[in-house]
Amino acid sequence: MKIKAVAGTLIGALLAFNSVSYAKQYHEMTFKAGHESLQEWLLPDTPPYPKNNKPTKERVELGKVLFFDPRIGGDGNMSCATCHNPLLGWSDALPTAKGFKSQVLGRATPVVTNTAYNSIQMWDGRKKSLEDQAVGPMEASVEMQTNFTELLNLINHTDAYKDAFEAAYPGEGISKDTIAKAIASFERTIISNNSPFDRWVKGDKKALTQQEVEGFKLFVNPDKGNCAVCHSAPNFTDDGFHNIGLPTWGDKNPDMGRYTERPLRLMKGAFKTPTLRDITLSAPYFHDGSSTTLEEVMDHYAAGGKVKTNLSPNMKQLNLTDKEKAAIVAFMKKLTTPPKKFELPLLPM
Amino acid sequence: MKCIKLNAWKRKSKLTLQVLILSAFSTVAYSETFKVLQKDKAFDKETLQVKVGDTVHFENADPFFHNVFSLSDAKFFDLGSFPKGESRPVIFDKAGTVEVECAIHPNMKMVIEVK
Ligand SMILES: [Cu+2]
């Protein structure tokens, strides 16, 4: 009895230790449905949030309304959802975004899905939290060009809006700050965590085919796909910055990426690793929209990148057969959560 | 190596005795070496106290590349990127607070207090 109890606590302690403190390497993983060594790939049920902005029903609902309200844009016809469109995987299906009066912007619209789990926002990491980020696009003249005086005026003259702010943030008022907090609360509900891959990790053997499991193995294996060094558990990102040698890096005046935030040689042309969850919904791919399909993405990596000046040292030419490349692509296609019913709000009038 | 050291001593001997004693005190007699590991995408220490003249070796224990840099006034450096098993030394030659980070993984941060 006693021995059993001690062993129990020991195993418990060991498990706890493993799950928090360190990422499993390839040789420590057993690629069987539900295996203990794979559990770090499951996302926590609820994403983290700042102390002063615990998501409540009222906050999420207000944030949803603001996210979809086109009157926020300077011309009264652009909302967050114009670019982060739920019908297009919370992105816009464009190679790079189109901003105020349709001007073409330099970078692709990233998905909002699972950004709540990331500790740094934007392709160059210039924003830390979702609260920090939310007013950015409104203030940007090339994006929404929001007129805040007019926006606050509109909200203050719309009873339903006023009531919603008071219900969500009693006594905090209507300001850029509470607008940002509400939008961030809504974004924390845009989550993909129930893909066939997740179900397989939880133990459903039938959720992935043999080829897809093989694809996952190759994805992690450092001598094969080597993808998980950057697209790491559980959100398929390391919250890190890498130059992966995209074609546009060879342009005359290329986008310097993270370098503008951290002026270190290594960061020239480096961009944030995006999540791969729901990846089938957000083509074209990369910050410059240079790949239209996952097959093209795979070819880019197999060649070890295209423009190799200042390439990340974690990039290399890959030793993969066509069959193996197809397996990795098949695996990525199983990272998408089946669509759920999503109700659009009626906007306060 | 020896020659260079001798030359340095010769040059130093031209300075006043006081300065000579001071420099011997800080660079020869008491300078220490520390090791900081980069493991599981974190520095193994959040803070470290060193003295002026001490050396810190940053060693990568992860199976992928890390960087180490600081933009602090007390020590400005960028060690580039290096793989598992390799380490790079930094001598802290000025008192102050040095914020050390990995440029690749911005969650990796530590502070070195140089006294
Ligand atoms: Cu690092």
Please characterize this protein's 3D structure.
The complex is a heterodimer of chains A (349) and B (115). With 349 residues, chain A is mainly α. Chain A folds into two domains: 2-45 and 193-335, Cytochrome c-like domain (Cytochrome Bc1 Complex, Chain D, domain 2, Orthogonal Bundle); 51-187, Cytochrome Bc1 Complex, Chain D, domain 2. Chain A is built from twelve helices and two strands; from the N terminus they run H-H-H-H-H-H-H-H-H-H-E-E-H-H. Chain A has helices spanning 2-21, 57-68, 80-83, 130-134, 136-139, 148-156, 159-168, 176-187, 196-201, 210-220, 294-302, 322-332; strands at residues 241-242, 271-272. Chain A has a two-stranded antiparallel sheet with strand order 1-2. In chain A, helix 2 (57-68) crosses helix 7 (159-168), helix 10 (210-220) crosses helix 12 (322-332) and helix 11 (294-302) packs across helix 12 (322-332). The longest helix of chain A is centred in the first third of the chain and has 20 residues, at 2-21. Mean pLDDT of chain A is 93; it is low at 1-21. The two termini of chain B are 28 Å apart. The relative contact order of chain B is 0.19. Chain B folds into two domains: 1-30; 31-114, Sandwich (Immunoglobulin-like), CATH 2.60.40.420. Chain B is α/β, with parallel strands linked by helices and 115 residues long. The model of chain B is unreliable at 1-24 (pLDDT under 50). The chains are: A mainly alpha (349), B alpha/beta (115). The A-B interface holds A 21-23, 25, 119-120, 125, 222, 229, 238-242, 258, 262, 264-267, 270, 312-314 and B 39-41, 63-65, 67, 69, 78, 80-81, 83, 103-107. Bound molecules: copper (II) ion (CU).
